[in-house]
Amino acid sequence: MIAVLFAVLTALSNGSASVLQRRAALEVPQTEAMRVSLIGHLLRQKVWLAGIALVIVAAVCQAVALATGPISVVQPIFVIELPATLLLAGLMMRARVPRAVWLGVAAVTAGLALGMATAAPGGGSDAVHGAAWVPALILTGVFEALLIAGALTARGNVRAALLATAAACGYALTAALMKDAMARLDEGGAGALFGSWQLYATAAAGVGALFLLQNALQAGTLVAVQPCLTLGDALISVLYGVTLFGEEVRTGWWVLPELLALGLIAAGCVELARSPLAAGNPTAPARARRVD
């Protein structure tokens, strides 16, 4: 129950951060794409710094969630970050929430409930044993390299989608490393935590994922970024949970309702990302909804 609570808090913080970072990324020239100077431009924007503050809050909440629950339970809950954030944004801006947003919220919520009920993730250990990290890190590096290479040859929403998927992989890796690092804390206290390579790898993976996400947000629309980021993070996290931590999910005929759940979540994310609230313009007319 504690893991679920802190996973929800993480989702709220991350969702808010994504919208703020998207607004900041729109102010950066296209010539700064895939350059370290992109971060320099963003550092001068208060809205981006506010987003980073929320990322830090989310990291703390995520650490607690992962320390108290399976990664295959915690990470999929993060799909609610966008709907929860948009509803909160509408409330804070005193803007009417469009019917399409409510439909998107319903689709994501129903998809998450269906997916968790049918997959029934759980079990596993708190730490990664043996040399299991070696092939996992190699395969992750190859996968990330292919996505980035593809993004460098693409433009617009295709580049944004590829970079968002790479960022999702980075965030999933960050979660897996964080969970393993937190297990060292339980086993040997603060000394074991700060002496573990997983802690520093968590920071490196998180910074890399953040950099990829900023470039994804700068390259294309939120409609292209958010579904890849949301679903990619959830699915890759479950894969890490199963392969590294020995967690279990249902297979066989259960895959059919699980695919339906993924479809509902994807459709809901697309509809939500198209909304004026996601664009930071709650007064925009529904017919002119565009995030660019």
Short description:
With 292 residues, the protein is mainly α.
Please give the count of helices.
Answer: 11
> How widely separated are the two ends?
39 Å
Question: Structural class given helices, strands, pairing?
Answer: mainly alpha
As residue ranges, the low-confidence spans are 285-292
Query: Helix-strand pattern, N to C?
Result: HHHHHHHHHHH
Rounded Rg:
18 Å
Largest sheet: none
In round numbers, the mean pLDDT is 82
Estimate the global geometry from the Cα principal axes. Answer: globular
What portion of residues belong to β-strands? under 5%
The helix fraction, in percent, is: over 70%
Strand tally, please?
A: 0
Q: How is the topology of this model organized?
A:
Blueprint: H1 2-25, H2 37-43, H3 46-68, H4 71-74, H5 81-92, H6 99-119, H7 133-152, H8 156-194, H9 197-219, H10 222-245, H11 255-273
Helix pairs in contact: 1-3, 1-5, 3-8, 5-6, 6-11, 7-8, 8-9, 8-10, 10-11
